[in-house]
What we know:
By secondary structure, the protein is an all-alpha fold. Helices cover about 60% and strands about 0% of the residues. The radius of gyration is 14 Å and the shape is globular.
Amino acid sequence: MPALKQPLSVRALKLPARKRLSLAALLLESVENSPQVDHALLGELRKRSAELRSGRVKGLTTEEAYGFSL
Length: 70
């Protein structure tokens, strides 16, 4: 199946961990000033993202998180 026919979320989950983190940070920044954003949640997501990037915590594989692998 050509990659473009797969949902964006499926394609994003196939990216290497570092690229997924970069994408997550970019998406968070894109909604930062939206009035619909829960800023406490945004702060928590930033904190967890920084912990993953620093290696302080280890992320889960897709299988561990969702019960299936890509």
